[in-house]
Design brief:
It contains one helix and no strands. By secondary structure, it is largely without helices or strands. It has a domain of 40 residues.
Length: 67
């Protein structure tokens, strides 16, 4: 079973997002130690999950604001 994908992790730069292992950025077990895969929030922006259909069942790390 795949891990849930977080929408807005606190420190996405500390993790490689290339597979379900979510290795620390200095480990990179599946990439041969080359370069880490960035979280979509780092490349697209904080509202990345609203743009397009990602097919994810994401985990919310922050509660949405109450109106």
């Amino acid at each position: 079973m795949a891990k849930k994908f977080p929408l807005a992790p606190k420190h996405p730069e500390r993790i490689c997002w290339g597979c379900d292992r979510y290795c620390p950025a200095d480990s990179l077990a599946c990439g041969g130690g080359t370069d880490r895969t960035q979280h979509p929030a780092e490349t697209i922006g904080e509202d990345w999950y609203l743009i397009g259909d990602w097919g994810l069942d994401p985990v919310r790390t922050k509660e949405p604001p109450q109106h």
